[in-house]
Design a protein that fits this description.
CATH topology: Metallo-beta-lactamase, Chain A
Distance between the termini: 19 Å
Strand content: 25-35%
Number of strands: 18
Radius of gyration: 19 Å
Helix content: 10-25%
Order of helices and strands: HEEEHEEEHEHEEEHHEEEEEHEEE
């Protein structure tokens, strides 16, 4: 199926978006005129990356990034700070700092525009995040263009962009989410537990859209060419997605691994935000063993932008190999 390189609308410099240079001018009204509620006060759009996967177009947006200290308090929490720092230094990284980025991904199949996860949203903008809508605009996509929104899981950095100004940010979309995940977060038993704050985010952002949501499990077809895979552990119903088109394949691994060194080279190391740490470690090994064995590309939500690469087996884990020109030829 043929498909234009860009979406149906390109960003035009006007209204509140005049400081952003339009990458192209296509037919249609300016995105700024359609989405007046989004106020942009930055001189440059966020980083984006576009590539072809068979007949599909994949468009990745850097929703934000967050530097942090004390890596061992997030990754390798069952290891010493010295061992965590030594592994980072062996990979040319500082031993006492790390950066975490957020990469919602849009896939244009030619018949559907499918968005995977929605970033930090309004709540992240004061800290420089929540830039998904800007990034989509820079790539020629308006919120109205999105026909399907898929939630890999329901942690705040994946669902907070569902609402904009108290209304659905993607007004023409239907939604797909995991049944196990939704049931966990909406269960009244979460009140008074460490999961209570996460539940509040789900009740505010996800539950209002439940009537438009299809709840799925393992092996469900999102649209033709995109299928869910159960990858529980990071969250109770965490899903990843296999994407295939024109003989090309990409696995969207979401939060299966959240650091390209600490989570991949040492998949057994515990991660602070993995809700079931043993299950998450087993899932990491299973998923990335598959990816390494099949020699396919993956896109990880928190991998270094543009978040796409390969892995090869190495000692007790895997070595990350960033994407270069594989999809350009």
């Amino acid at each position: 199926m043929s498909m234009p390189l860009l979406g149906r609308r390109a960003l035009l410099g006007s209204a509140g978006l005049g400081v952003i240079a339009a990458p192209a001018i296509l037919k249609g009204e300016a995105f700024a005129q359609e989405t007046k509620q989004l106020e942009i006060d930055r001189a440059m759009p966020p980083e984006t990356h576009r590539f072809k996967l068979g007949e599909f177009e994949v468009f990745v947006v850097k929703d934000g990034a967050r530097p942090s200290g004390a890596p061992n308090e997030t990754f390798g929490t069952n290891q010493s700070a010295e061992d965590v720092g030594a592994l980072l230094e062996a990979n040319f990284l500082p031993p006492d700092q790390f950066a975490n980025s957020f990469s919602p991904t849009l896939i244009n199949t030619g018949s559907d525009v499918v968005l995977f996860d929605t970033g930090l949203g309004e709540s992240g903008r004061a800290q420089g995040g929540g830039r998904l809508l800007e990034g989509l605009a820079a790539g020629g996509y308006a919120p109205e263009d999105v026909t399907v929104v898929v939630l890999t899981h329901m942690h705040g950095d994946h669902i907070s962009g569902l609402m904009e100004g108290g209304k659905p940010a993607f007004p023409n979309a239907r939604y797909i989410a995991g049944q196990v995940e939704y049931d966990f977060w909406t269960d009244a038993a979460r009140a008074g537990t460490p999961a209570e704050n996460g539940q509040k985010g789900v009740l505010a952002n996800v539950k209002p859209l439940a009537e438009k949501t299809t709840f799925i499990g393992d092996g469900a077809e999102v649209v033709s060419g995109i299928t869910s895979i159960a990858a529980f552990g990071h969250s109770p119903g965490h899903l990843i997605f296999n994407v295939e088109s024109g003989g090309r394949r990409l696995v969207l691994t979401a939060d299966t691994a959240n650091h390209f060194v600490l989570s991949l080279q040492r998949p057994d190391w515990e991660v602070r935000f993995d809700m079931d740490k043993a299950a998450a470690a087993e899932t990491r090994k299973r998923v990335f063993d598959m990816i390494a064995t099949d020699k396919v590309a993956f896109l990880g939500y928190h991998m270094p932008f543009p978040a796409v690469g390969y892995v090869e087996k190495q000692e007790a884990g895997f070595r990350f190999v960033p994407k270069s020109y594989q999809f350009d030829i």
